[in-house]
Structures are given as C-alpha cells and as structure tokens.
C-alpha cells in the first residue's frame, strides 16, 4: 500500500472540461481498489458543494511575496478521497480555466496556491510517498520540490510522477509571474523552466519529476519528435529513459450500454436490438427526421484545431453530399462553431448541432450513432473512441496517439495523412461497410468485446509507484 497524493485541476464528477477529469476520477478510484491510499487535491471551483464535507485544514495563509491567500481545505469522500482547496477569490469564478476560449490571467497564481496547499496537506493531513501530478496545472509541485523545498526533511523520501495528458498546454508565463509563484530566476533555472525569454511550468516539471507518464504509448513516442513536441521534444528525448506510455482506461461504470441511465434503450453484445431505439431517440433529440436507412455519424468534442475541425470544414461539402446524417456536440472555438452552423443551415434535415457541454447528450450520441468520427490532428489518448467501441459505435479515426493504439481494422477505420481527402476515404470505407450488415455487426461486436478498463492501466501505474517507492 503506497500513499499517493494526486494534484490535478479537474476530476470527474466534481469538475470536468475534458479527458483529464475522467482520468483523475477513475484512476484514483482504481488505484484505491488496488489497495493504495489515494487522495486528490483540487480546487473547489464554483458549484462544487460542500454538504457533508469535513474541514480538514482551516485558515491556512499562503504567502507569495506580499500577496497572501487564505485557504480552507475540505474533505469529500467520493470513489476517492477529494481534498478541496477553497479560496473563493481564486476559484469561485464562472469558468474552470477562464471565460469560453480564454484563460484567466492569474492561472499561474491559482495553481501555485493549489500546489502550496498540497504541501501543507502533505505535511499535516496526508503524507504521501508519491506526488502524482497532472499536466501543467500541477507542475509547480515537482518544481517546488526540486528547488525551494529541496532540503525539507518531510519530503526527502517523496517521489514525483508527472502525467502528461496534452503537451499542447504548457503554462508559459513572463518573468513578472515568477515572484507571483514564489520563485526567483535562480530557482526557475534550477528547475529548467526557461523558455525563450519566458518561463514554462510543464517544462520545469518534465525536468524536475522523477518519472513521466504519457497517456498512450504512441503519443509518448510522438512527443519526442519535432512535429508533435511543441518545442519540448529535445528535452523529452533527453529524459526518454524516465518516460512511460500508459494508456488511459475507460470508466465502464459510467460508460456501459447495458446500464447507462441516459440512453433510450439498453443493449449488449449479445442483443444489439436496443441500439435502433437509441438512434431514433438521438435523431429526435436533434429534431432530425427518423431515417434508419441512413448511417448516422456522431462527434462529441472540444471545438479545437487539435480535434481535426479544419479537416471537417474542408470536407464538409463532400461529407454532406454522401447519404448520411451528422450530429455534433461541442464547445470551444467560435470559428468552428460558425462553419458548423452554416452546415446546419445548408442541410437542416441532415445535420444536427448542439453547442455546449452536455454529458447526457454525449452519452446519447455515443449510443445512438452508427459511426463515431475523430479526425484529430493529434490525440494524446482520446476517450470517446473507447466509449464508442463499448457501445458498438464504429470509430473512424486518424492514426495518431491513442487513436492509433486503440482502434484497428477489426474494430474501426483509420487514416494516416492529415488531409480532408484521406478522411473522406476512411468515411466512405465505413459507409460502404455499414451497408453490409453482417460485416458491420462483426465490427460492432469486435469493438464491444475490447477491454480498455482501468484495471490494466491502474496496475501499470501501481507498478511504477512501487518501483519508485522501493
Ligand atoms: P480531450 O480531453 O482532449 O478533450 P478526450 O477524448 O480525452 O479529449 O476526453 C474528452 C471527454 O470530454 C470525454 O469524456 C467526452 O465525452 C467529453 N466531452 C467533450 N466535449 C463534450 C461536450 N461538449 N459535452 C459533453 N462531454 C464532452
């Protein structure tokens, strides 16, 4: 049993923007089931209730130069133990990271306070062997341990694991931000944070952590190349002996067509009949006519260039010229939203769009669509293709990162070149297969039989923690 303190900016079900939340929520629970003692430190954002929560740390004053932040920490027991850092001036805001499409300017301070609160908890409430830090928002934990906390006896035996969920977000700040995070130039240099005249938190954590995990084996290789290294590939190659790719799992307690409370009918690998009702229900949800004879393509995604919306925009005309229906749920970039709206205006009988974050509708799309499209430019792991596989919704994906590792010819369709042409080839192959019912059902069943549960992935983290703690 190893005590593990996770530090993260999101965790499902309390706060979710993307896959990070799913991973932190499910992995912490899975590690607990393996016998580890796990707590997750995260901000108490607006909307996270404290009913039944117990205050475990009161009136903690965290100083950063002349600025002082007073925090209280509350314990909420879910599937894992959540330590919620309450500091209304920093976290009680409408968004998690900022207003739509933007970041709060003081995010470095918000996550510096989170890291400092984590150390206070580690001293007095829950003493970990492993600090498991997720993405740039938790990167100050290994940075502080390597610099200002280097000689603190309490943490001499502590080890750090950094998990990179998306290298595209690094937390890069001007020199003026350093003192606001309680650092000076010397410390920043010791932590390896310099980055073209600015300071890069993720870079500091990559330099300072004992081990680094990346959310799929293929993405772990890709980030060590100039194409997908986002300026850090050199450093990542230097640290490659410390890097491990561990595929994310899918949380089948949330995503299971046999029990899913959000969908119109339940179904399984042995009895697929309920899926037709899910498709009808989904079309109805978007106000589209019932058209069982037409394949239905679904997408649930952040509207971001990472997710391949450039390709979709380029191929849009060709795509809707095919005999198919398309439904999209997403939120993010206004430009992509604009072209999707135009698409709906052009073919209101064939295209459905919902802008927003809607977990219930996400489940309905994963269940009701025939095909799930993920044309990502890059994809660290990707969760929606895992959910789709379990729901017999055949994925059409670009061969990158976790998509490459989780979809094969027996379960879906892939294309390699990042082009509208290549994407349409794959889509057309899928449409042709859909018309061949026995072949399609074989694809569906093969996907549904795959096991991407957390059991396997959590065991790999567990092994890593044991090695480090030994
Ligand atoms: P990323 O973390 O890069 O956004 P992932 O595929 O790893 O991509 O995880 C995305 C998660 O967020 C999935 O659980 C997906 O269902 C969910 N999601 C994304 N956009 C929406 C949305 N608009 N409404 C509901 N859920 C969404």
Description:
The chain is α/β, with parallel strands linked by helices and 470 residues long. It has two domains: 3-249 and 455-469, Rossmann fold; 274-450, Glycogen Phosphorylase B (Rossmann fold, 3-Layer(aba) Sandwich). Helix content is 38%, strand content 21%. It is built from 18 helices and 18 strands. It has helices at residues 19-33, 88-91, 107-124, 140-146, 177-180, 185-190, 201-208, 217-222, 233-238, 274-285, 309-321, 334-346, 359-368, 384-390, 401-406, 420-434, 437-449, 454-469, and strands at 3-7, 37-43, 54-64, 67-77, 81-86, 130-134, 159-164, 172-173, 194-195, 198-200, 211-214, 243-245, 296-303, 325-332, 351-355, 371-374, 394-398, 413-415. The strands form three sheets. A nine-stranded mixed β-sheet has the order 3-4-5-2-1-6-7-11-12, with helices on both faces. Strands 15-14-13-16-17-18 form a six-stranded parallel β-sheet, sandwiched between helices. Strand 1, helix 1 and strand 2 form a beta-alpha-beta unit. Helix 11 runs parallel beside helix 12 (334-346). The longest helix is centred in the N-terminal third of the chain and has 18 residues, at 107-124. It is globular. The model has no long low-confidence stretch (mean pLDDT 97). It binds adenosine-5'-diphosphate (ADP). Adenosine-5'-diphosphate binds at residues 18-20, 22, 300-302, 329-331, 357-359, 362, 381-384. The site of adenosine-5'-diphosphate has 18 residues, from helix 1, strand 13, strand 14 and helix 13.
Please outline the helices and strands.
Elements: E1 3-7, H1 19-33, E2 37-43, E3 54-64, E4 67-77, E5 81-86, H2 88-91, H3 107-124, E6 130-134, H4 140-146, E7 159-164, E8 172-173, H5 177-180, H6 185-190, E9 194-195, E10 198-200, H7 201-208, E11 211-214, H8 217-222, H9 233-238, E12 243-245, H10 274-285, E13 296-303, H11 309-321, E14 325-332, H12 334-346, E15 351-355, H13 359-368, E16 371-374, H14 384-390, E17 394-398, H15 401-406, E18 413-415, H16 420-434, H17 437-449, H18 454-469
Parallel strand pairs: 1-2, 1-6, 2-5, 6-7, 7-11, 11-12, 13-14, 13-16, 14-15, 16-17, 17-18
Antiparallel strand pairs: 3-4, 4-5, 8-10, 9-10
The structure holds adenosine-5'-diphosphate.
Adenosine-5'-diphosphate (ADP) binds next to α1, β13, β14 and α13.
């Amino acid at each position: 049993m190893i005590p593990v303190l996770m530090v993260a900016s999101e965790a499902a079900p309390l706060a979710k923007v993307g896959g990070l939340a799913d991973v932190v929520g499910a992995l912490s629970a899975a590690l607990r089931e393996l016998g580890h003692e796990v707590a997750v430190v995260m901000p108490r954002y607006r909307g996270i209730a404290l009913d039944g929560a117990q205050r475990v740390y009161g009136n903690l004053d965290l100083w950063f130069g002349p600025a002082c932040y007073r925090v209280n920490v509350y314990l909420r027991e879910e599937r894992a133990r959540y330590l919620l850092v309450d500091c209304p001036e920093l976290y009680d805001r409408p968004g998690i990271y900022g207003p739509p499409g933007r970041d709060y300017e003081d995010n470095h301070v918000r996550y510096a306070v989170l890291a400092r609160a984590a150390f206070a908890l580690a001293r007095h409430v829950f003493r970990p062997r492993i600090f498991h830090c997720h993405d740039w928002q938790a990167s100050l934990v290994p940075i502080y341990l390597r610099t200002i906390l280097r000689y603190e006896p309490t943490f001499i035996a502590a080890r750090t694991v950094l998990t990179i969920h998306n290298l595209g977000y690094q937390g890069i700040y001007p020199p003026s931000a350093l003192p606001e995070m309680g650092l000076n130039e010397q410390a920043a240099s010791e932590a390896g944070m310099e980055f073209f005249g600015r300071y890069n938190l993720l870079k500091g954590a990559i330099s300072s952590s004992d081990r680094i995990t990346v959310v799929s084996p293929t993405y772990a290789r890709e980030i060590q190349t100039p194409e997908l290294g986002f300026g850090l590939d050199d450093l990542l190659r230097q640290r490659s002996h410390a890097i491990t790719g561990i595929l994310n799992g899918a949380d089948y307690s949330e995503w299971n067509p046999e029990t899913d409370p959000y969908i119109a009918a339940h179904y399984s690998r042995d009895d697929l009949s309920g899926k037709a009702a899910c498709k009808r229900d989904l079309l109805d949800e978007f106000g589209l006519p019932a058209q069982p004879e037409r394949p239905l393509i679904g997408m649930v995604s952040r509207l971001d260039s990472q997710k391949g919306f450039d390709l979709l925009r380029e191929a849009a005309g060709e795509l809707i010229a095919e005999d198919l229906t398309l439904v999209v749920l997403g939120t993010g970039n206004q430009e992509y939203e604009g072209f999707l709206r135009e698409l709906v205006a052009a073919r209101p009988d064939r295209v459905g769009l919902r802008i927003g974050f809607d977990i219930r509708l996400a489940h309905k799309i994963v269940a009701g669509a025939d095909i799930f499209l993920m044309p990502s430019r890059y994809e660290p792991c990707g969760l929606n293709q895992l959910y789709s596989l379990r729901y017999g919704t055949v994925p059409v994906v670009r061969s990158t990162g976790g998509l490459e590792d989780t979809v094969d010819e027996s379960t879906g369709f892939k294309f390699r070149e990042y082009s509208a042409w290549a994407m349409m080839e794959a889509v057309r192959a899928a449409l042709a297969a859909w018309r061949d019912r026995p072949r399609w059902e074989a694809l569906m069943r093969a996907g549904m039989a795959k096991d991407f549960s957390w059991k396997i992935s959590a065991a790999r983290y567990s092994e890593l923690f044991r090695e480090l703690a030994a």
